[in-house]
Amino acid sequence: RGARAAADVVVAAAERGVPGGSGDPIFIVWYKWSDLRLLDSEPLVRANRRASQEPGGGRVVHLHLLEREPLVGRSRVSGLPRCGARRAFFWRQAVEDLAQSLELHGQQLLVCT
User: Fold this and answer.
1) Which helix (H) or strand (E) element contains residue 29?
2) Residues near 3 by Cβ (< 8 Å), separated by ≥ 6?
3) pLDDT score of 64 more than 70
4) Are strands 109-112 and 26-31 parallel, antiparallel or unpaired?
5) Which residue has the higher pLDDT, 2 or 72?
6) Whole-structure pTM over 0.85, yes or no?
7) Backbone angles phi, psi at 27, to 5 degrees
8) Is residue 65 classed as helix, strand or coil in its secondary structure?
9) Rounded to whole angstroms, how far apart are CA atoms 19 and 17?
10) Full 3-state SS string of 67-112
11) In this model, does residue 70 exceed pLDDT 80?
12) How far apart, in whole angstroms, are the C-alpha atoms of residue 67 and residue 10?
């Protein structure tokens, strides 16, 4: 389900022209629930390198999928919530910080549900 949503977002973004609508190749950086960082991010380095090597310039799309299960699901073994209020608050702050950091570099984080 998540991969399909990501594909739909990238196709819609390309059709609307934000980003990659010029027909430039699109390179996706998928920020997982457990890895919301810019520093020392190998996928980000690779995407930027490949985009810069494209003759007309490629585009990098920054994507985070909001997965419901880790936020509201329960453990199969203990039945306890998988994510407490503190962790959910920390995750939200991390996503907001990532989005702000990308904006400082003229980029945008797409958050999809």
Assistant:
1) strand 26-31
2) none
3) yes
4) unpaired
5) 72
6) no
7) -115, 125
8) strand
9) 5
10) CHHHHHCECCCCCCECCCHHHHHHHHHHHHHHHHHHHHCCCCEEEE
11) no
12) 18
Residue for token digits 């997965």?
67
- For the chain, the average pLDDT equals 80
Residue at token pair 């980029």: 107
**Residue pair 63/47 in contact by the 8 Å Cβ criterion:** no
What is the structure's pLDDT at 21? 52
Distance CA 102, CA 107 (A): 5
Q: Rounded to the nearest 5°, which phi and psi values hold at 105?
A: -105, 15
- pLDDT higher than threshold 60 for residue 62: yes
Whose tokens are 């490949």? That residue is 50
What is residue 86's predicted lDDT score, i.e. its pLDDT? 87
Contact 95, 64 (CB under 8 A): yes
d(CA 38, CA 15): 27
Residues counted in the chain? 113
pLDDT in tens, 7-26: 444 544 544 445 445 577 89
**Hey, which residues does 53 pair with through a beta bridge?**
none
